[in-house]
Amino acid sequence: MRLVLVTWKDAECQEDRWTDTEDALRECNNPLQPCQTAGFLLYEHSGHITITLTDGVNSVGPHITIPRGCIISVQDLYAEEQNT
Question: Which pTM does this prediction carry?
Fold first, then answer.
């Protein structure tokens, strides 16, 4: 599996309490901060990719699915050589 670094924007929840509408609207203009996730590229789909933390013999560890619309970049960190 390819080892990749994915830079992406996640949804945010600003408050855990009631907020004045004007304050909430001001916060809507704050840019979303990018996240980075490194792991093995488990699956690619036209709408999303899935990254796993661990590539086991016949199993994988925890994994995260990221919608393509949230992805800023995917950088290869390592690619296994194919046996030919």
Answer: 0.80
